[in-house]
Amino acid sequence: MNDFFVNNKKTKDISELRQDPVGRDWVVISTGRAKRPEAFKSSGTPERETPINLCPFENPKEHGNEVIKTYPLADGSGWAVQVVKNKFPIMEGQNCRAESKEGLYLVKDNAGYHEVVVFKDHRRSLAQLEVAEAGQIIKVYRERYLELSQKMCVDYILIFHNHGRPSGASISHPHSQIMALSFIPADVRRSLEGSRKYKEERGRCVHCDILEWELKEKKRIIFENKSFVAVVPYVPRFSYEVRIFPKTHQSYFENISDGETVDFAEALKISLAKIYHGLNNPAYNFFIHTPPAERDHEYDYYHWHLEINPRLNIWGGFELGTGGEVIDVDPDEAAEYLRGIKT
After folding, report:
1. Secondary structure (3-state) at 305
2. Bridge partners, 11 (sequence order)
3. The pTM is what?
4. What is the pLDDT of residues 168-190, one digit of tens each?
5. What SS3 state is found at 31?
6. Domain architecture of the chain: domains with CATH
7. What phi and psi, each to the nearest 5 degrees, are found at residue 46?
8. Which are the catalytic amino acids?
């Protein structure tokens, strides 16, 4: 491991997983992340832009990024998307050793992969792209998912996107991230377990039942096309949260067809555009929830989806102390407002 200095004391990088023995959630300890450059941090508003001449993603290779794959523009005039290795990865290494004990704690190496999906345009976010451009990005997500799922030490693959400094984006140039993890995240584990129990008790997919109700009610749907529906959930975790589901039951994101990528891209682009225009370009995160990449058993009870979480509020003592959220706008009103936003 490399050495670095903190308060003039020489210490070692730590990159490992540690499990909480109470909730059995894994936590990533990755002290090398502290070395990330601070030059690109904004003042806290998502509107502040990384200057082009300082942007490491304007020309990834020239700025020392290791390019994994380049995807060309439709007319062949240049690149549209580049996938690069994250210079400061949260997950790295291929040592899949079994857990060891540190006192009462389980510990294991932080194995996995961390990639960045860089968009060509320095200023246009996903909300501002054409549907065809967004569709190409969805295909890149799918291709990289399938590639990473074949590698060692991969239990779960997380595809996510941070927009704006409050979301965790330190570089304003639009980009998504893909992480291949050597554990199943706690939130995913809870979602899988809840879906499994619902199927066992009622014989149906819980998300299919949710969609059937939402499509009948029509109150919280902000967009739908042939294959996908975007809805403000009846029980949201964030104000103006939007979730996008395939209309038919599909367990695995990576099995999406080429035709479905276009419909998915349209639903994502329009949902983000409504948030962009309707809420004055707030910071947000989105991520795809799909079953684990490891296939110890089938996850036919699960229904993959994408969640968009605008970062409009700061968690306080209640949220941190209870793990629950306080939503300050009625989901029906949030959906009605977003539905009326022209894109």
Report:
1. strand
2. 4
3. 0.89
4. 898 999 999 999 999 999 999 99
5. helix
6. 12-185 (3.30.428.10), 187-339 (3.30.428.10)
7. -70, -15
8. 175
